[in-house]
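Here is one chain, start to finish.
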Amino acid sequence: MDANGTPVTVKYQAVVKEVVPTGTNATSTGPQGVPQTGTPTFAGGDPLVPIDETVEPSFDDGSKEKSIPGQGTYTIAPDGTVTFTPDKQFVGSPDPVTVKRVDKNGTPVTATYSPEFTKVTPTGTGATSTGPQGVPQTGTPTFAGGDPLVPIDETVEPSFDDGSKEKTIPGQGTYTIAPDGTVTFTPDKQFVGSPDPVTVKRVDKNGTPVTATYSPEFTKVTPTGTGATSTGPQGLPQTGTPTFQGGDPLVPIDETVEPSFDDGSKEKTIPGQGTYTIAPDGTVTFTPDKQFVGSPDPVTVKRVDKNGTPVTATYSPEFTKVTPTGTGDKTEGLQGQVQEGKVSFTPGHDSVPFPAGSTPLFDNGTAVKEVPNVGKFEVDADGKVTFTPDKQFKGETPELELTRVDANGTPVTVKYQAVVKEVVPTGTNATSTGPQGVPQTGTPTFAGGDPLVPIDETVEPSFDDGSKEKSIPGQGTYTIAPDGTVTFTPDKQFVGSPDPVTVKRVDKNGTPVTATYSPEFTKVTPTGTGATSTGPQGVPQNRNSNVCGWRSTGSN
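Its structure:
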């Protein structure tokens, strides 16, 4: 219409071209069990009609999540990213999912997402070990996921293939497994060789099981023993300690089991030789019979190692003969004098002395021996021999044996002999001269044959017949005083030499000695001399007639 209000009519026709948005499918590939994502892409059919970003994408049925039994579950994010979370054991390509979007015109457009899952197979590597008999061994089979994204599931503890954590194999030993997968095999102590291997099972993050074996091997352990010897003197106990060593440092000798002899005993006696004993530390003592010399039967000592394996070694002592020695003595002395000698004894070994306080003994088993007509012998603990001879014995005594016994009971014998030299006292005769009829005295003198054996002054002298007075008819009488002075009282008319008298004395040994006393008497003849006198008549006169005897002087 113009300004005048005049209408004018024209025609307009529009042509609308269809705008068709497009979608591009998405695919992905990955390991079994690991979620995958993909994003189908969409484009508007015209730049002026883009995809409507205000409308979130969905699956073709309008849902945001879709589960496919036996395969997995799709989910879609607001930005169109599709995630497929597979079932752990699903392998291959699940049913694809369709994603729908709309453009600004509301025109729908779809595209698919198709993931693919490759199989993931975890692997296991067996373990082996070698060690000595009786010692537990460990090994750890190793496991690896089939893909770095599907590792072994450390939240699931390993077990044996039957699901157990312990497995015993009769006659071999027992397997156990730790949470970290370490397998320990504790063998029977006497088992040697390779036991039945054990199978260990683990699973990966998909739950896929994987197994590997553990195979230990046990080498035989043989302990060794070294015998002991010793040498020592007869009669003294000896000790020795056989040594033992485990066949492997891990299987030492079992110190909790005391050693014993091979028959299990702790004491063993060998008749005629001695007795073995063993201490808890393995020291063997042999106490010999005192007279045993040489090597006794060896003894066998037994020990066991930590496996209970027995091992033996011997102990062999040797005993050298111990022979004590001695030195005899021969002494010399005077008749009647006590003699002292010394016999000595030396042990055959310092450790086998003569018993303290023991005394040598004569063949009569005592320390005193008397030999008739010879004398008395005595010995003390120091070997001093005292011989007290009979007073009249002279010459050599018999050889006397003296025996001493050492601590082993071994005797040693020496001899003692005394020589007694004869002591002969002497006497000197006495004489005297004197006048007829006058008693005379004389004293024979005596001397011991040695200063040590003087005349016995305690025994009074006598005549040879033991008397103290002796009369000789027609001559006179002898008497003897205690001091040995002899007096001869002659018959008054006896002139000349009477029979001499024999005086006897004894020395300290009682040995007699004699000497004589011989007086001599000279004749005594009296004489006479006439006498005269003169005097006055009538007065009496005396007439003396002197008679003088003849004097003879003799020695007293």
